[in-house]
Amino acid sequence: MSLPKHVRLVEVGPRDGLQNEAQPISVADKVRLVDDLTEAGLSYIEVGSFVSPKWVPQMAGSAEVFAGIRQRPGVTYAALAPNLRGLEDALAAGVKEVAVFAAASEAFSQRNINCSISESLTRFEPIMDAARSHGVRVRGYVSCVLGCPYEGKVSAEQVAPVARALHDMGCYEVSLGDTIGTGTAGDTRRLFEVVSKQVPREQLAGHFHDTYGQALANVYASLLEGINVFDSSVAGLGGCPYAKGATGNIATEDVLYLLQGLGIDSGIDLDRLIAAGQRISTVLGRANGSRVARARTAG
Ligand SMILES: CC(C)(COP(=O)([O-])OP(=O)([O-])OC[C@H]1O[C@@H](n2cnc3c(N)ncnc32)[C@H](O)[C@@H]1OP(=O)([O-])[O-])[C@@H](O)C(=O)NCCC(=O)NCCSC(=O)C[C@@](C)(O)CC(=O)[O-]
């Protein structure tokens, strides 16, 4: 399969990245991050989550973040909504696109959203109906597609029906998440081969964490499988509260560098993106998780 000419990057740093940071982050710092990402040319930014603040304290204040950001026309600013309450809060905050999230492993589903996989899919139905009636698009996630912190190996055959269910209920795109970052390029190719028999490739995305240093290889493997949407996190922000040692998502800067080297357009300005990543890394007092950013800012 030939490589795509254009790839869309879904920037998940303000949500997947910041949700895992230990120290409190002010609304102003979150707003600044989203604005910096808009300036860098990202066309899709996941801004926050409308989830229980007891479960994910860092995402409290997502409505204030939405109220504070400068929204550029043509850019999608999305949020997670795990239940009807989350959707209603998102709508009240003026959110135009939400994401629901399921898992391919039962144990992870229980720990993450406190219900079984099938209960979660049932819970999403009224969200889909309400979103549809408000003209809000819904993206779907499947976690633990290449491994689970509790159950170990997860097969592509376990992932496919969950992805299919999300697609069938109306998710316009389903993002497959290697939550603990253990997957290899071979696993990734097989995953997309199997899942694309149930959901068209054009409606699948790859979401890779870099725990084992395989994320960039997995993006390349996915490109070879005809996938052209990837979730990534500026400065490689994040981790996973349920997976010991898990690192953040693949750094957006590193994916962008890969894409530029392949002559694939994404509309993003690497220098501005690096500046955005440096700024939030300084705010958080952490090392920048992007290899490209570290190399470009060394010395
Ligand atoms: C799903 C629930 C809400 C179920 O939570 P629950 O405890 O089963 O629900 P509940 O209905 O019994 O409610 C419990 C409490 O939460 C409140 N509540 C209930 N709903 C909401 C809401 N929407 N917003 C705010 N508060 C809410 C509710 O009002 C109540 O408050 P209390 O009476 O105890 O004071 C909970 O489990 C939850 O919020 N979990 C958080 C899950 C989460 O955000 N995980 C991280 C994102 S997923 C991810 O990172 C993976 C991904 C997508 O990146 C891909 C990958 O890498 O794998």
Automatic annotation (TrEMBL):
Give the pathway annotation. Answer: Metabolic intermediate metabolism; (S)-3-hydroxy-3-methylglutaryl-CoA degradation; acetoacetate from (S)-3-hydroxy-3-methylglutaryl-CoA: step 1/1
Q: Could you identify this protein by its name? A: hydroxymethylglutaryl-CoA lyase
What are the leading ranks of the lineage?
A: Bacteria, Pseudomonadati, Pseudomonadota, Gammaproteobacteria, Pseudomonadales
Gene3D superfamilies in the cross-refs: Aldolase class I
Top EC class, one word? lyase
The record's annotation in InterPro entries points to:
Aldolase_TIM, HMG_CoA_lyase_AS, HMGL, PYR_CT
Q: Does the keyword Metal-binding apply?
A: yes
Ranges for domain Pyruvate carboxyltransferase come to 7-274
Family assignment from sequence similarity: Belongs to the HMG-CoA lyase family.
Isomerase keyword on record: no
Record keywords, A-Z: Lyase, Metal-binding
Task: Name one molecular function that GO assigns to this entry.
Answer: lyase activity
Which PROSITE patterns does the record associate with it?
HMG_COA_LYASE (PS01062), PYR_CT (PS50991)
NCBIfam families in the record: PRK05692.1
- Enzyme nomenclature, EC number: 4.1.3.4
Q: Which reaction does it catalyse?
A: (3S)-3-hydroxy-3-methylglutaryl-CoA = acetoacetate + acetyl-CoA
PANTHER family in alphabetical order: HYDROXYMETHYLGLUTARYL-COA LYASE (PTHR42738)
